[in-house]
Design a protein that fits this description.
Number of helices of chain A: 13
Distance between the termini of chain C: 59 Å
Helix content of chain A: 55-70%
Largest sheet of chain C: 8 strands, mixed
Order of helices and strands of chain C: HEEEHEEHEHHHEHEHEEHHHHEEH
Chains: A mainly alpha (365), B mainly alpha (318), C alpha/beta (364), D alpha/beta (368)
CATH superfamily of the largest domain in chain A: MetI-like
Shape of chain C: globular
Strand order of the largest sheet of chain C: 6-7-8-3-9-10-12-11
Largest sheet of chain A: none
Structural class of chain A: mainly alpha
Structural class of chain C: alpha/beta
Radius of gyration of chain A: 25 Å
Number of helices of chain C: 13
Radius of gyration of chain C: 22 Å
Strand content of chain A: under 5%
Helix content of chain C: 25-40%
Distance between the termini of chain A: 6 Å
Number of strands of chain A: 0
Oligomer: heterotetramer
Number of domains of chain A: 2
Mean pLDDT of chain C: 83
Order of helices and strands of chain A: HHHHHHHHHHHHH
Largest interface: C-D, 52 and 61 residues
Chain lengths: 365, 318, 364, 368
């Protein structure tokens, strides 16, 4: 098992490496580059632009820029020495060995062009809200989709099944952002106004989320703080999971029906097992196999969905950070966000594979 | 074959006997349908799919004719008497209502938006399918290192949160240009197709009928184009419908965030983007109708996709 | 069929039509991180036999014995790993692609699965006609009439050319597959389990057809089957395969009456006969066929051999691989102790078998 | 056809105590898009305690559906069972008992072995668990006891070192071994009847021999009755006492195995026997049954075998033949040759069959 996980992790390395090249390539090919934001500003001369480029290392050849960003080389040295870290080991090795601290490989994503902060700081700050949103959404998504799917499969063609079918079609066709807008209209607009339209906390009651004062407040009134965030989570989570639930409940249903049609289910019935045992022991476990893989493949949508949801509901997470960074041509932040989310996707797939291997004894390690 | 195979005398009676043994009249019906005709027949039996096809037909009609009949040229339409902040709800004259700001007819906007949205959805799918089929065919047929290399690229592309990347790419390259947006969406729509085509190649290549074709001396080229690709056709078509649906939503989303098509061109996403600012006023009709247009289109495309899936599924009966 | 005799060179008398020598086909198994070859499937592992013009030579064996791979490697549908296949004195294994295509006109194959071997998206005219076109035997104009001729030869109606495979029953599809092979006017046809997928009542129709066609067009068959009754009825000579090798070879009369390899005897004993008066005490082999990835050392059959057990497990069976040796004219066997096989021995072993034989001797 | 099992007609009398299973006029239909298709159409037979019966037929003859109907394993709908049908098992009618009562019969008194041992075993559970869960359920034993019993069952079917085998998964075993597991599972609760649906079709000849020998030995040892479903007349000849031949959903012939295989009376059985290749027929053409099995959507109007039958005459196209007695009480054949209308043709037809079997000099005399 451990060997299998290690092997899958090693297999993920080239993919991650490829991702860095693609991410870097896209941003590199973008016209204008980081200086584009100055174009409209008449007070910034060519000279200033050059200085700006030099200050950010943008005057270097592209491979050098890439290597520096990745942390393959040590920009302080010259000649072949650039590839050597402070301890004399190759620079790309982990910090404890090479002594190098620069570049993505050592967890350094550089500085944000727009704010001058460390990219890490900005990402870490935005990560917690996104993790809260995505985590809750993932939980709701899986529980609801599996329950709905299994129930619909067992009670095939029932009223519930038909209603679930309609929901699945419509939910799957609904653009997330539109749903978000309509929900705000419905629940936070001039009419009902029972749910918060956006944000993560009630600003009149608590300090801004993530600030030091907030944690003090949180320590004092944890229950209130939690229910506040929970209250604000309702609409975004609902918006985020509808599409996935719509698609996956159908998938679970189909997979369950497929499993119920298998010969081994017939054998189980022939053994005289009660219907419950046949369904929930023999069929369900097999039906979950394709579902696990499918969920692994759908994890990226959680990130994509987060951008939408965070934008509409002013959720201070990674999605909002991305939009802001895109608008400000903040390349280091964008690269960091893209790379981290891609890595998470790779990890999610890996996790799905491992989960698959755990429930399917036919997979050899 | 020479004339010696023509039935004569004893041989003729032999042939008659063989025919009798074969029982040729019991199984074969009078009509002969190709797989395509059969598929169409089954498709016609799928009510939702026909509904989808009708809706899509109407939408395409609207997209083609709409801008001619109800042009979006506000230069020729007199400006409202005064610029109002609030829009007006649906009425007999404006049955989708009017927007705030320049007080535009929502119906007119939605009709004009159909053209761009549908165009982007379908043409980007087309690009994706072409790239995906080529990449998948090469990987599946050549195999070995090339296959490995191409599939690792697919892995990389699939690991990227695609809409994330499209968003950034549209912002940086798109400049609001419809064609560029199409290309960007196309460039990120091929991975699924290429995996599909590759796996079809790998499995169909091992099928006995391909081996039989090789045994009678059929060339590789013919095997690819006459045996493998036609058999891969149905899964490609089915997943194309998903791509169209996905890209229509994707484009609306990118435009909604202001990174897509130029805001002066009406697309469903752009209309929604403008509506967002007016939420506090409760102008529900403004986002409602373009959203419904998207849902309707995607539903129609998905219905068609479902119909195609059933139609091509050999296990389902006509 | 007159043009066939003129288009090919006449053969010297007594020379085999097809000669297979030392034929091997090994499939690599890749695994691990770097997709290195971790093991080899010894599907066909050194096979020699001749097929005389006009005869029906059969290969029998259980699944995984390599008979299908062997049939396909004769036509180079799979590339042999080693050894040669000679057709009319020409080495097939070394032919460049162009000549191979021309040669495939003379060597054809009929497949087992009547559903998988016809492209579901092609009408019959294309299925049968594409070979004719590829071989330059016809042009587009005359193609349909040639296809109709071929259909008629196998007992199907001429009007069926525009129909699709799904409109036919299993037996009729099998006829279409035969028509496809026969349309090229081959001399040698590999029949790969052509009746295994068919019901009994249809099976006899197809066997009759194959025999008629052989008579009419002077064909030579390599008939691959796992059904010993069919082989006994159908063929002239038989090779019995076990784990990639031929273990016994001889005429049908010799082999069925006087089998000398312990495996052949067990196979024959296992055939269920539709005559309740002949209920017999079977000689049942223990265990399963070993994996072709790791064939046992020495004689490949030694793990299941009843004779070896009876002889007190001689060392030779695990140390030395028996070669196919000639017992008498036309009867070859690959067993060190073939001479010890007598009908008395067989009966004795069968009688002493426990009612419930253990499934496998290898450790769990 | 319109009446189905839900409307309960008065039941017939139970069979005598020596009869373990009696099937009376069993009809199973499948509801499809354009109507209903008869899969089993008026099948009757009985099995005595400890006896063996073979159900023979080609694909589509309805033999498997018969077994599934008896086990009540078909989903209703799409399947429908005729109102007049009765299945008596061990003294009670089992088509009409509630499903939860039937569950106590399945696996305990009546066990089934399927054709494909790979797909019929659940891939995600160990074989030990799959056998033990049945034992726990029916015999109300503790987990420990159930495991012991599973091991015992595996040992009985000749699986070496069963103590370690119970921890294995189905995919870790060979085809023959899996079929042994299926048999062990069927045996584990000492059923009164084992239904084996093509138990050896997916297996190689030498493995088939192992499994057939095993089934015979087991049956002798446990005294269970065996209902063997197969398309292979050779298997039938070796395994069973009594044979039921099915064609297109109907019984066309039944009798003892000697009677049916040596002196067949239904043209279909005759044709089947004639078409089997054998050494005696070498050098000659095989007899064939012309044509193909009719589609259940489009059955011939009267006799279902009529379009393929070499002996058919006008009557066969107009009137469906009944199942008539051609000897002792349970020696039956469905053919007009054996009704009074066929008196003049019967002799010639039987002679024709004898001639067809006499190819190559071997004469197989029909017993008187």
């Amino acid at each position: 098992m451990t060997k299998y996980i290690i092997r899958r992790m090693i297999q993920a390395i080239p993919v991650l490496f490829g991702i860095t090249i693609v991410v870097y390539g896209i941003l590199l090919a973008a016209p204008g580059g980081p200086t584009a934001k100055f174009n409209q500003n008449p007070r910034i001369t060519e000279e200033i632009k050059e200085k700006f480029k030099k200050a950010w290392g943008l005057d270097q050849p592209i491979p050098v820029q890439y290597c520096r960003w990745m942390g393959f080389c040590n920009p302080e040295n010259v000649g072949l020495q650039v590839f050597i870290g402070e301890t004399g080991w190759p620079n790309f090795l982990p910090t404890p060995i090479s002594g190098a601290t620069n570049g993505v490989l050592h967890g350094d994503f550089g500085f944000s062009i727009s704010s001058g902060e460390l990219v890490n700081t900005r990402i870490v700050r935005a990560a917690l809200p996104t993790l809260i949103l995505a985590g809750v959404a993932l939980f709701v998504w899986l529980v609801v989709a599996i329950l709905m799917g299994v129930y619909a499969a067992i009670h095939r063609y029932s009223l519930f099944d038909q209603a679930a079918t309609v929901f699945a079609y419509v939910g799957f066709a609904m653009p997330t952002f539109w749903l978000g807008i309509m929900l705000i209209f419905l629940f936070s607009g001039p009419g009902l106004n029972i749910l918060p339209a956006g944000g993560m906390t009630e600003t009149r009651l608590s300090p801004p989320f993530g600030s030091d004062e907030y944690w003090v407040y949180f320590g004092q009134k944890p229950l209130e703080a939690l229910s506040d965030v929970g209250w604000h989570l309702i609409l975004p989570v609902f918006t985020l999971v509808v599409v996935n639930i719509a698609g996956d409940s159908r998938f679970v249903r189909a997979s369950m029906l497929e499993a119920l049609n298998q010969d081994y289910v017939r054998t189980a019935k022939a053994k005289g097992l009660p219907g419950r045992t046949v369904t929930f022991k023999h069929a369900l476990r097999n039906a979950m196999l394709p579902v696990v893989t499918n969920i692994g493949l759908e994890i990226p949508f959680l990130f994509t969905g987060a951008i939408v949801t965070e934008t509409i509901f002013s959720w201070p997470g990674i999605g909002r950070l991305t939009i802001a960074a895109t608008n400000q041509f903040d390349y280091p932040v964008l690269m960091g966000v893209l790379l981290i989310s891609a890595t998470l996707v790779v990890l999610a797939n890996l996790l799905a594979d491992v989960a698959y291997a755990v429930i399917d004894p036919r997979i050899k390690f | 074959m020479t004339d010696s195979r023509k039935p004569q005398g004893a041989v003729a009676s032999d042939l008659v006997r063989r025919a009798e043994e074969a029982g040729q009249d019991y199984e074969v019906g009078l009509e002969s349908l190709s797989q395509m005709q059969l598929a169409w027949r089954k498709f016609k039996g799928h009510r939702l799919a026909l509904l989808g096809l009708t809706i899509l037909g109407i939408l395409i009609g609207v997209a083609v004719l709409g801008p001619l009949l109800l042009p979006y040229n506000f230069a020729t339409i007199p400006l409202p008497d005064k610029i109002v902040y609030e829009g007006r709800p649906p009425s007999a004259e404006h049955f989708f209502g009017e927007t705030g700001g320049l007080q535009r007819d929502v119906f007119r906007l939605v009709v004009n938006g159909a053209r761009t949205s549908l165009f982007i959805g379908f043409s980007s799918m087309f690009i994706g399918v072409v790239i995906g089929t080529i990449v998948g065919s090469i990987a599946g047929f050549v195999g070995g290192f090339v296959d490995n290399f191409l599939m690792r690229i697919v892995d990389v592309m699939l690991s990227l949160p695609v809409l994330f990347v499209i968003l950034v790419a549209s912002r940086f390259f798109g400049n609001g240009n419809v064609i560029l947006i199409v290309v960007i969406f196309g460039l990120f729509s091929w991975m699924g197709i290429s995996r599909l085509v590759r796996s079809q190649f790998l499995s169909i290549r091992e099928r006995e009928f391909v081996e039989a074709a090789r045994a009678v001396g059929v060339t590789d080229r013919r095997i690819i184009f006459r045996h493998i690709l036609p058999n891969a056709f149905s899964p490609i078509v089915v997943s194309s419908s998903l791509i169209v649906a996905g890209n229509i939503i994707g484009e609306a989303f990118v435009s909604f965030l202001g990174f897509g098509v130029n805001p002066t061109t009406p697309t469903w996403g752009n209309i929604l983007s403008n509506a967002l600012t007016f939420i506090p006023l409760g102008n529900w009709w403004w986002p409602l109708f373009p959203g419904m247009a998207i849902i309707l289109t995607v539903l129609a495309v998905n219905f068609i996709g479902d119909g195609l899936r059933d139609a091509f599924d050999p296990r389902s009966r006509a | 069929m007159t043009e066939m005799t003129t288009s090919t060179t006449p053969m010297a008398a007594g020379e085999p039509l097809v000669r297979v020598k030392g034929l091997k086909k090994h499939f690599p198994i890749h695994g691990g991180l770097l997709r290195r070859q971790v093991a080899t499937v010894y599907a066909v592992d050194g096979v020699d036999f001749d097929v005389q013009p006009g005869e029906i030579f059969s290969l029998v064996g259980e699944s995984g014995c390599g008979k299908t791979t062997l049939g396909r490697s004769l036509l180079r549908l799979v590339e042999p790993t080693a050894g040669t296949v000679t057709f009319r004195g020409r080495d097939v294994t070394g032919l460049p692609a162009g000549e191979l295509r021309a040669l495939r006109r003379k060597m054809q194959i009929i497949f087992q699965d009547p559903f998988g071997s016809l492209n579901p998206r092609m009408p019959i005219s294309d299925i049968i006609g594409e070979g004719l076109l590829a071989q330059g035997l016809t042009d587009r104009k005359t193609r349909d009439s040639k296809v109709e001729d071929a259909l008629e030869t196998v007992g199907l109606r001429r009007e069926y050319t525009r129909r699709y495979p799904h409109e036919f029953s299993g037996g009729q599809r099998q006829r279409i597959g035969i028509a496809r092979a026969l349309a090229l006017e081959p001399e040698f046809v590999v029949c790969d389990e052509p009746v295994s997928a068919l019901d009994v009542s249809i099976q006899s129709q197809v066997l009759n057809l194959l025999l008629d066609l052989r008579r009419d067009f002077n064909l030579t068959y390599l008939f691959i089957s796992h059904n010993l009754s069919v082989v006994q009825y159908f063929s002239d000579r038989v090779g019995v395969m076990y784990l990639g090798r031929i273990v016994e070879l001889g005429t049908v009369a010799e082999l069925y009456r006087n089998a000398r390899h312990p495996y052949t005897i067990a196979l024959l004993s296992a055939i269920p006969e539709p005559d309740p008066r002949r209920r017999k005490k079977r000689l049942v082999l223990t265990g399963d066929v070993p994996s072709p990835v790791a064939p046992p050392p020495g004689c490949r059959f030694n793990t299941r051999c009843w004779l070896r057990e009876k002889l007190g497990n001689p060392e030779r069976c695990v140390t030395e691989e028996p070669e196919l040796r000639v017992l008498q004219s036309g009867h070859q066997v690959a067993c060190h102790f073939a001479e010890d096989v007598t009908s008395a021995a067989v009966v004795a072993v069968a009688a002493s078998q426990p009612a419930i034989a253990p499934a496998a001797s290898e450790p769990a | 056809m319109t009446e189905t099992i839900s409307a309960t007609p008065p039941l017939g009398a139970p069979p005598d105590r020596d009869t373990l299973l009696e099937v009376r006029d069993l009809r199973t239909y499948f509801r499809v898009l354009d109507g209903t298709v008869p899969a089993v159409d008026g099948v009757s037979f009985s099995v005595g305690r400890g006896k063996t019966i073979g159900i023979v037929g080609e694909s589509g003859s309805g033999k498997s559906v018969t077994a599934l109907t008896i086990m009540r394993l078909l989903d209703i709908p799409p399947a429908e069972i005729g109102a007049e049908s009765e299945v008596w098992f061990d003294g009670r009618e089992i088509l009409r008992i509630p499903l939860n009562v039937m569950r106590k019969v399945r696996g305990k008194d009546m066990a089934m072995i399927f054709q494909e041992p790979l797909t019929s075993l659940n891939p995600v559970f160990t074989i030990g668990e799959q056998i033990a869960e049945q034992v726990r359920l029916h015999l109300k034993t503790s987990g420990r006891e159930a495991t012991d019993r599973s091991i015992e069952a595996l040992r009985l079917v000749g699986i070496p070192s069963p103590e370690s085998r119970i921890k294995q998964f189905p995919h870790e075993m060979s085809g023959g071994m899996r079929q042994r597991v299926m048999i062990a599972m069927a045996l584990s609760c000492e059923p009164k009847l084992i239904i084996a649906d093509e138990p050896t079709t997916a297996l190689d000849v030498t493995i088939q021999a192992q499994i057939l020998e095993l089934l015979k030995a087991i049956q002798q040892r446990t005294g269970s009755a065996l209902m063997l479903i197969t398309h292979d007349l050779g298997v039938v000849a070796e395994m069973v006492d009594h044979v039921v031949v099915m064609y297109a959903g109907q019984v066309v012939e039944q009798g003892t195995v000697e009677e049916v295989l040596l002196d067949p009376r239904a043209p279909y059985t005759m044709g089947l026997l004639e078409s089997i290749p054998s050494v005696e027929k070498r050098g000659g053409r095989l007899s064939v049954i012309k044509g193909v099995v009719p589609s259940p959507f489009n059955l011939p109007p009267a006799c279902r075998f009529e379009p393929r039958c070499p002996y058919a005459w006008d009557l066969c196209h107009e009137e469906a033949p009944p199942l008539s007695r051609v000897g002792s009480a349970d020696r039956l054949a469905r053919c007009h040759l054996h009704t009074s209308a066929g008196d003049s043709r019967r002799g010639a037809a039987l002679q024709q069959h004898i001639d067809a079997m006499r190819v190559g000099g071997t004469i197989r005399d029909a017993p008187a």
